[in-house]
Amino acid sequence: MEFLSSYCKKATRSLPRSHGHQWKIVEAGNYVHKENDKVTINVGAALVGVAAALLISACSSAPEKESAGKAESTTLSGPLVEQRWNLLLVGTDERVSLPATPFFQIGRDGQVSGSDGCNRFTGSVKLGENQRIEFSQLASTRMACPNMEDAKRVTDMLDTAYRYLIDHDRLVFFGPDSRVLGGWREAN
């Protein structure tokens, strides 16, 4: 601490002011001091203070260490998990015409798999508070089907799902704007 004190005293300067007054030398630790009509600045103490602030902010913004090779273990539970859901409606009342019934199933490990009625898909899902749901990293096969627009509407519903509501054997997805995206029925 004495080193800093002697450094700050050496770094303090006495500078002329525009009104003819002199800047006054002060002890370490005081950055600015006004006495009567004189303002006093300790340049060394100010520099040490700025350096300390930068050091502290650099330490607090350092990235966290990533765990070496260990992935976060996610275990999901609830009425959505380990249940097959078959598509009932797109939007509030539209039925789709596809070669197979679209469906999905969420595993306890946070993985989702299913079919859009034409192509199989896989991905990840996160379930949060207040019936929050988020599908991500959806990937699918690329088979051609007679009605690809309807198949895309199914996967778009999953991509934009924000919240869900379960009523008995029915599941409804809502978008971020609270608009109904579609409905699903629990498969027996």
TrEMBL record:
InterPro entries: DUF306_Meta_HslJ, HslJ-like_sf, Hsp_HslJ-like. Residues 79-175 form the DUF306 domain. Pfam families: META. This is META domain-containing protein.
